[in-house]
Queue: 2 jobs
Job 1
Amino acid sequence: MDESTKAGSNGTPLQGNKPRGALRVGTHLRTPELRYQRLFETSHDGIIILDATTGCIIDANPFMTHLLGFSHEEFLGKQLWEVGLLRDADRRSGVLHDVANLGVVRWEELLVQSVVHPDGMDVEIVSNTYSEGDKHVIQCHVRDITDRRRADATAALHAAELAVADRHKDEFMAMLSHELRNAIAPVANALVILGHEQDASNPLPHRARLIIERQVGHLSHLVEDLLQISSAGKGTMRLKPALIELRPVVQRSVEAVMAAYAHHNHVVTVTIPATPVWVEADVIRLEQVLVNLVSNAAKYTPDGGNITVTVDRAGDRAELRVTDTGIGIAPEMLTSVFDLFTRAEGARGLSRNGLGIGLNIVKRIVELHGGSVVAKSDGPGAGSEFVVSLPLAASVG
Ligand code: ADP
């Protein structure tokens, strides 16, 4: 029973159903037939109907004839290969065999001759078989995918070019960082020697030496960060995990950073639990996390401000908090400060020495340890808090 009969038997007069093209074109077709005829005639996919027994074309829609540049009459009675499709005999028998056995088959053909694409058209064809009365037919939907395939090919080419450029950039960064590191090391060594040669009667060289020392410290910090993103970016950061007691690591790191920032007179408080806090971690990387967070607290907190570092347990996690009373972070920046090369507006005022790399490295290291890090702040001027959460070591935690 077709749709129109159903509608009629439901007591819904077809004409009362806002008749579509049926009355307009004045044919005697019923609504569903008209609908499918319009689909066939106006579709922007080519449609070809084949006699399944002979393989001859028995119908083709206007879009199909337009794509291939034949008239409707020229199509009729031809085999697919005669209109430029399935020209390869082996492929042809494979496709016809599949459509007969599976009922539906999909394939693609490249560089089909077409008047629309004089330099060859790429098509995707989906065929299915069904019966029209006692006749078996095959219906082929032919979709022009030339533009899509060309866009895909161009995108793939661009992606490959970008990958090469990205690799060159990484190699350049790695090479540059190594060269810089090699250049900085002798300067740092020379400074140590100069430190032994102090002249108590003249404090000026001593002060100059401290400035150089600080700046060399900044430089080596930046270079280490650069080195790391050139390798960490490629997923080559390797951890050497061991059972680590967190409290001494925290104390060591805070002391090292605060020595470098002593002239800023921050009030630094370290709060640690009375009993050991064990984590499975790479101690060098963990120190790097702490040094980065505490250095940031010092960099972005005006002289005399408070910096608090706390170690705690929270369930099966160790929690590290670095809190400061500094410039704070705007709510919309709280997540993006962890993105590479991101620096907040106000940051430049207090520290010109940043590249926006440190927090990205912190996040990667923490996540490699199965942990997480979040930034919190009530906004500009309200101070910041960075909370690192790490799994406690299973055996002793
Ligand atoms: P850098 O400090 O070298 O710019 P980071 O990746 O360490 O790079 O930090 C990214 C940005 O996050 C900083 O430029 C700053 O805007 C913001 N930020 C980080 N730590 C703090 C903090 N303690 N207080 C305020 N802003 C911070």
Note: The chain has a mean pLDDT of 86.
Job 2
Amino acid sequence: MLAREANYDGLIGPTHNYGGLSMGNLASAKNKGLIASPRAAALQGLQKMKLMADAGLVQGVLPPQARPNIPELRLMGFSGSDEDVLLGAWRANPVLVRNMSSASSMWSANAATVSPSADCADGRLHLTPANLSTMLHRSIEHAQTGRALRAAFPMAIVHDALPMQSTYSDEGAANHVRLCAEHGDAGIELFVYGRDALLGGGGTEFPARQTLQASHIIATRHLLSGTRTVFAKQARRVIDAGAFHNDVVCVGAKQCLFYHEDAFEDSAGTLAAIRKAAEGLFEPQFVAVSGEDVPLEDAISAYLFNSMLVQLPGEERLTLIAPTETEDNPRTKAYCDTLVAGNGPIGAVKYVDVRQSMRNGGGPACLRLRVVLTEAELAAANPKMILDEALYAQLSDWVTKHYREDMAPNDLGDPDLMRESFTALDELTGIMGLGGDFYPFQRV
Ligand code: SUG
């Protein structure tokens, strides 16, 4: 079956800020309190999307979520008009409001786990929105994410998120890698987890955000073949070094798995399991980066592995779309130069500027959700959520018109910001054809 791999990026929302909300995410902690630029952030994200679309890839857009999350604040007992709710909550607890105001849905690699129809026994495309239950500010994303995914993929099975309990902690595609010969062929799915919740704590200082139990349930729900599915444990050491998701130390595409040698608790066992799962389908190609070439600390701070690994039309070998921070770091830059000079599966590296997102620990790969679509599925996907020249121009104008230049964490208590954001998002539903009831504030 012919199929293409589409990238659906999260459009960066108007409240983008540096709240320091994600323990274990070193960039989030380090940049807490900095002045952010929502406008620059959203334009950087759009430019990355345009680069991919111009290179001939299918590029989708997922709309931002409405923040502050007023319905959540009402559940906590704040009442009155939306403005009363925001001001009351801000007086009571600004940290709570910061959590309810994060633009974190931009990192759509955490939106869901996606299994292409070629891997699922019923021949349907399956998506499970991630419950993101470990972090308060992210745990409020999944319902609206489900709505966005249903709008984007009306032909797919979009499951509900897993229960909001730590046994089922799930962070979506950031801990999931699919390998295959061609995108439309049956592939193998690798689920990387940090914690087996039934065995007790993960033994890490920083939170292990993905459990084995969550990964098992998703594989079962998606009707994946047991022999083509691999569950591998992320090394404790990398979680405590700041790899809060596997995609901070590993990325895969087609037959190629590109990873840091410290990524997995049992590297040899993981590679053997991948080889076995791929038997009869393809020969996996492993590109392991040693700590000698790139120390773990550099890999994490420069986000070498949080790159997109893509097959560009007309290119034989894969292209790594890396953040400019990887180019700025002499060790990762030298590694990339050597990589493309060799004759392995990765033949080119392109650098993109997503610095605004990077300061919150979100690189090029965090900003996109990969969805393999057959020709029929692509034809059935919502065309208004696919980036073309016209949508790029409209969204860029929309950002420039509505977004603030600067944002400090304390600005989040400002009711004007809420009004500006909701006005912008209301207009966005028109641009993207999402209907007049897409956001909670439109449904009251
Ligand atoms: O969940 N940062 C996000 C970054 C997500 C990156 N995604 C992937 N690796 N796929 C997170 O930690 C920081 C927000 C703040 O501190 O304001 C934040 O949520």
Note: The first strand starts at residue 3 and ends at 10.
